[in-house]
Amino acid sequence: MDRTLAREAAKLAGKKILLQGWVNTKRDHGKITFLDLYDRTGIIQVVGAGEEIRALHPQDVVEIEGIVQPRPASTINEKLQTGKIEVKAEKIEVLSKAEELPFDLGMQTLDLELPTLLDYRSLTLRHPKVRAIFNVQEAIIDEFRESLKRKEFTEFQSPVIIPQGAEGGAEMFEVNYFNHKAFLAQSPQFYKQILVGVFERVFAVNKTLRAEPSVTTRHLTEVTTLDAELGFIEDWEELMDVAEDVIRDIFIRVEKDCNVELQLLDASIPKLSEKIPRIKLREAQGIIFKRTKRENCNEPDLAPEDEREICKWSFEEKGSDLVFVTHYPTSKRPFYTMADPKDPEYTLSFDLLGRGVEWLTGSQRINNLKTLTQKAKERGVDLEKSELYLQAFKYGIPPEGGFSFGSERITMHILGLKNVREASLFPRDMERVDVRLSTLKNK
Amino acid sequence: MDRTLAREAAKLAGKKILLQGWVNTKRDHGKITFLDLYDRTGIIQVVGAGEEIRALHPQDVVEIEGIVQPRPASTINEKLQTGKIEVKAEKIEVLSKAEELPFDLGMQTLDLELPTLLDYRSLTLRHPKVRAIFNVQEAIIDEFRESLKRKEFTEFQSPVIIPQGAEGGAEMFEVNYFNHKAFLAQSPQFYKQILVGVFERVFAVNKTLRAEPSVTTRHLTEVTTLDAELGFIEDWEELMDVAEDVIRDIFIRVEKDCNVELQLLDASIPKLSEKIPRIKLREAQGIIFKRTKRENCNEPDLAPEDEREICKWSFEEKGSDLVFVTHYPTSKRPFYTMADPKDPEYTLSFDLLGRGVEWLTGSQRINNLKTLTQKAKERGVDLEKSELYLQAFKYGIPPEGGFSFGSERITMHILGLKNVREASLFPRDMERVDVRLSTLKNK
Q: How buried is residue A351: exposed, middle or buried, by Cβ count under 10 Å (0-12/13-18/19+)?
């Protein structure tokens, strides 16, 4: 007998079907037992009598043959796709028996502490609310790709093992590479710039690794980064145009395809005005000063409270949850960032802020070999092993730039999660690589 | 003036346009100079007189304003999309000047030795034939995704840094992880199995790393692997059905979208019969013996010459360039591979061979916790740090299996490339991480 998926069962009243899935919850009502069974398409109620069904436990993997029948009117659940029917079990087979769960997974809210959520990751990922996070993340990453493919960007696979860092070597993981010292890539920066010389417009969905010695709610050591880079830009504002289009497409896609997930997680898509406001850092600081009287006008960056304030301003004054802050000081941006020809103390760079935090960062890059090597030298960046990067500029790279953002952070910000670890299937940080490092012998 | 892309110019005879791109080749004919200019959409001929155009060199990045005009009948190139027109240059601006090239990139064939091809990777990637390889690779990877999404697979991002290997620890790169020993993932095996418990059907496009101490034409240390895993399989042959569908979809897509690239690379899609033949290893060895009298009937695997022979047989007798060989000996497959209940010396495993070599490998997995831990123990595999993997089976995993293949190898096999390094943008091996390791100080 062929398997019937949960979502298809509603249409099959009166028919005998074969369900396969996991027991979510079990309720014994005297002689009768109710199961919530779930598979990849949803949840379905199973009802039966006898020892066999009574012996089942949450997370048992079962195969159940039974008849689809309408539920008694009093037990109809309008919220559920299959809420008007149930399956009367006739034959039950246990495909895989689960051990007793350490906590209740059937509950509506999932109020586990983060360490428990992660110690039992293979189990907690099965909770509908946790699964929903990664359905949204999949849609975000997929739409990043689709949006850029519509603009004729080429997808590429960027290396993980690199001979030298793109940003001066801080906080890189070191690999023993056949007795040579190599590193794990913190970003695909050099490679995406090289490939502007090949495909003009490129993007990558790639792992980036940072030996962040900080344990915060925002830091992971392993991140899936979304990177784009494009050549022949008319001017640097075109970079913000493309970033804005991508973000807008992502919002539209998530709203369209992940409606159920957004409801389940009580999340809403940020509000966008027709155009995301763009203001210079110094202007932003002026606005913040006016609103708060905080004297941060000469700082090279926005402090967390200032980020929150400028987002508040953007929402209140411009009707946009997101805001571009531009022209960060040259000294605070990577060596390859293009200085503003009108005011070389500042760069043609931007951060996209939303809901009080940074979402995305980008800039125009220096595309002249001489200027590039000179800037690297001034900043003490060693490019000795970055031959291929310099080679690209030796043989002609057009005016170009790009942007980058982390898939975990954007998932976190859209869904309003409190900790970025919740937005990573298997989060890695200073204290954990699946298992807690403190529990291991230091070897 | 807005930019016109090369492919749009053919329709604009008589109009003034602005082109942006790289000089591919330059030919001086007395007073007149001809350029082949290229951008991401193709090549276009530019003609002009005077010092400015004569001073251009290959790979110069230029912006040219000019009039689109029909070519003289004698110079029409029917093979080229823009072969009936040329652009008479009126104004030339050099956006980025290229240095003298170390070799001619304009030539039809690219007969550079591999070390040169890689030493100048940022330049050689710009050759149309090299670019074509990665256009095909992009289509392969994209179709892998699309094909599985149509079957309701969920895409996930698998970790790079892992606490312990999936296959017993051989040939893993070691990372210094905050003074703990961690490793780079050789495969997403454990994670895709865990996620069968969450999404039923999953796939990943992910970097896998192997400290292969061999320098062959088939080995890279860094590979973009295409992995799929699915639960609630009816029987293990379903795994081959899915793999076959994916491969077939990839062939159809490449043939449809990469026609130009296939012609340029003189490549053709392998021939498939209505169903890819499936034969047991021992049967294959019997066939090979009959055809060649080679006595390899009791070997645990096929030697390279036997792989070639069975592919020859498949093509000659079954009309298929591809063939599944199944039931490899239990001792030769990873500990998690399901043994054939009818003959436990052999596994429910398969390799897909084509054009004389292995393309893809897969199997049903053990989904019973007790059997799994016992097999690991028997094979000396330490799962001490693989808590999350074992946890998944503790809480119920359905009958499941999957398959895996490398994007570089399948690109190589479809295109008939001689060396897998040609199918990696930035290939890593024992001797090279962008730069040749032998040229570096051992530090």
A: buried
- The span from the CA of A19 to the CA of A2, in Å, is 9
Please give, rounded to a whole number of angstroms, the shortest distance from the CA of A140 to a CA of chain B. Answer: 11
Q: Residue A169 CB: number of other CB atoms within 10 A?
A: 13
CATH class of the domain whose range is B6-96 = mainly beta
Q: What is the pTM of this model?
A: 0.96
DSSP assignments along B171-212, one per residue: TPPEEEETTEEEEE-S-SHHHHHHHHHHHSEEEEEEEEE---
Q: Which of B156, B160, B338, B382 to mutate: most A Cβ within 10 Å? A: B160
Please state at what angle helix A281-292 crosses helix A304-318, rounded to 10 degrees: 90
How confident is the prediction for chain A on average, in pLDDT?
A: 94
Residues of A in contact with B40 (CB under 8 A): 152, 154, 199-201
| Contact assignment for A173 to B176 by CB distance below 8 Å | yes
Q: How far is CA B276 from CA A439, B150, B271, B291, B363, in A?
A: 49, 21, 10, 21, 17
User: Which element (helix H / strand E) includes A41?
Assistant: none
Tens of pLDDT, residues B382-401: 888 899 999 999 999 999 99
Q: What is the 3-state secondary structure (H, E, C) of B392-412?
A: HHHCCCCCEEEEEEEHHHHHH
Q: How far off is chain A from B354, nearest CA to CA, in Å? A: 25
- pLDDT tens per residue, range A252-307: 999 999 999 999 999 999 999 999 999 999 999 999 999 999 888 889 999 999 99
- Residues B14 and B162: their CA atoms lie apart, in Å, by 61
Contacts with A443 from chain B: Cβ below 8 Å = 180-181
| Best residue of B198, B389, B407 to probe chain A, by most A CBs closer than 10 Å | B198
The partner residue sitting opposite A391, judged by closest CB among B120, B195, B234, is B120
The CATH number, out of the four listed (3.10.450.50, 3.40.50.2000, 3.90.1720.10, 3.30.930.10), of the domain defined by the range A121-270+355-439: 3.30.930.10
| pLDDT level of residue A168 (50, 70, 90 thresholds) | low
Residues on chain A touching B443 (C-beta within 8 angstroms):
180-181
Task: Please give the angle made by the CA atoms of A349, A393 and A377, to the nearest 5 degrees.
Answer: 70
A440 φ/ψ angles, rounded to the nearest 5 degrees: -95, 150
Pairing of the two strands B16-29 and B32-39:
antiparallel
- Tokens, residue B189: 């095996």
- DSSP 8-class letter at B265: T
Note whether A258 and A239 are within 8 A (CB): no
Greatest Cα-to-Cα distance within chain B, rounded to the nearest angstrom = 83
* Residue of A433, A437, A439 to mutate for B, most B C-beta atoms under 10 A: A433
CB contacts of A3 in chain B (<8 Å) are: 232, 234
Measured in angstroms, the CA of A265 and the nearest CA of chain B are apart by: 17
Tell me the shortest Cα–Cα distance from A339 to chain B, in angstroms.
17
Q: Which of B126, B195, B221 sits opposite A198 (nearest CB)?
A: B126
Looking at the complex, report in whole angstroms how far the Cα of residue B396 sits from the nearest Cα belonging to chain A.
5
Q: pLDDT-based confidence at A443, cuts 50/70/90?
A: very low
Diameter of chain A measured on Cα atoms: 83
* Extents of the domains making up chain A: 6-96, 121-270+355-439
| Distance of alpha carbon A415 from alpha carbon B66, whole angstroms | 51
CA–CA separation, A207 vs A185, rounded Å? 8
Cβ separation A160–B184 shorter than 8 A: yes
Dist. CA B210–CA B229, nearest whole Å:
21
pLDDT of B443 above 50: no
- What tokens were used for B13? 């005879």
| A226 contacts A411 by C-beta, under 8 angstroms | no
